[in-house]
Amino acid sequence: MIFGNKGLKVMAILTFFCCLSCKTRQSFFNYDAIDYYYNREFSENDALLLENLMPGNALDSVKKGVMEGSIPVHLNDLSFVDSLPRMGYRHRSLSKTRFGAIDGLFCDKGVASEQTTTTCTHVYRDILIFKRSGKVVGTAKLCFSCGAHEIRGAQGNADLFGQGHDYWILEKLLAE
Question: Where are the domains of the chain?
Answer without folding.
Answer: 5-174
